[in-house]
């Protein structure tokens, strides 16, 4: 039987690294960002509906341009909701197909906006990666891909980490790789115990 573990956390908390640890432990891992990337590539399921709603969002290759979407959203505050109404159901279908293809595994669903999109209702349990705010800030800014201001804007859109932690079944501290790996092993042991009792 499938066990669905939602993996969430805020930007710079170490979610991708933790997802890789679950993959190393034998889990099937689905990545929400990778799913969106697939939907946006030429011929992807999101291209035609987004072209119909926002013709300027499609680039010369026939892909959805994230840069153009950002420009559309900054020019029109109502655009984000309309984009989400198109993309979220497609992402949900991709997730359901993945779960069906891995029906006898522990599936980890790496979803940054898990609670924000209501996806926790599809999960058997939720794990939240977490780290101290100053470590998070240092990690994000060290990437050199965004300014302090952009980081603040992303944080403002995400549910506060304290709330995510409170709503999760497991919390994985990612202050060190060793600590994170030990917590992943604890979570796996607990899930295996739950499956044995099912």
List keywords for this structure.
Rossmann fold, five-stranded parallel β-sheet, 5 strands, 13% strand
3D structure, described in words:
The protein is of the alpha/beta class and 198 residues long. The protein has a single domain (3-193), classed as 3-Layer(aba) Sandwich (Rossmann fold). It contains 9 helices and 5 strands; from the N terminus they run βαβααααββαααβα. It has helices spanning 15-24, 32-40, 47-53, 66-75, 79-101, 133-142, 148-157, 161-167, 177-197; strands at 3-8, 28-31, 106-110, 125-130, 170-173. Strands 2-3-1-4-5 form a 5-stranded parallel β-sheet, with helices on both faces. α2 crosses α5 (79-101). The mean pLDDT is 93. Pfam families: CoaE. Catalyzes the phosphorylation of the 3'-hydroxyl group of dephosphocoenzyme A to form coenzyme A. ATP binds at residues 12-17. This is Dephospho-CoA kinase. It catalyses: 3'-dephospho-CoA + ATP = ADP + CoA + H(+).
SS-derived structural category: alpha/beta
What is the number of strand segments? 5
What characteristic shape results from the CA principal axes? Answer: globular
SSE string, helices as H and strands as E: EHEHHHHEEHHHEH
Q: Radius of gyration over alpha carbons? A: 18 Å
Q: What summary fits the major beta sheet? A: 5 strands, parallel
Helix content bin: 40-55%
Instruction: Flag low-confidence runs.
Output: none
Number of helices: 9
Q: Please give the domain count.
A: 1
CATH architecture: 3-Layer(aba) Sandwich
Assign the CATH topology.
Answer: Rossmann fold
What is the straight-line distance between the termini? 10 Å
The main sheet orders its strands as 2-3-1-4-5
Portion in strands: 5-15%
CATH superfamily: P-loop containing nucleotide triphosphate hydrolases
Overall average pLDDT: 93
CATH class category name: Alpha Beta
């Amino acid at each position: 039987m499938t066990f669905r573990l939602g993996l969430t956390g805020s930007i710079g908390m170490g979610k991708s690294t933790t997802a890789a640890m679950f993959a190393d432990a034998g889990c099937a891992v689905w990545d929400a960002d990778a799913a969106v990337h697939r939907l946006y590539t030429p011929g992807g399921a999101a291209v035609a509906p987004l072209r119909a709603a926002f013709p300027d969002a499609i680039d010369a290759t026939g892909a959805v341009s994230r840069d153009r979407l950002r420009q559309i959203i900054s020019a029109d505050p109502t655009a984000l909701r309309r984009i989400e109404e198109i993309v979220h159901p497609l992402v949900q279908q991709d997730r359901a197909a993945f779960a069906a293809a891995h029906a006898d595994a522990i599936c980890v669903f790496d979803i940054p906006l898990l609670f924000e999109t209501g996806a926790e209702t599809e999960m058997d349990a939720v794990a939240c990666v977490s780290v101290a705010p100053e470590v998070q800030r240092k990690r994000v800014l060290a990437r050199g891909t965004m300014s302090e201001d952009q980081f603040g804007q992303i944080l403002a859109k995400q549910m506060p980490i304290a709330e995510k932690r409170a709503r999760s079944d497991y919390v994985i501290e990612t202050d060190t790789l060793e600590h994170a790996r030990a917590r992943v092993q604890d979570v796996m042991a607990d899930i295996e115990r739950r499956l044995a009792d099912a």
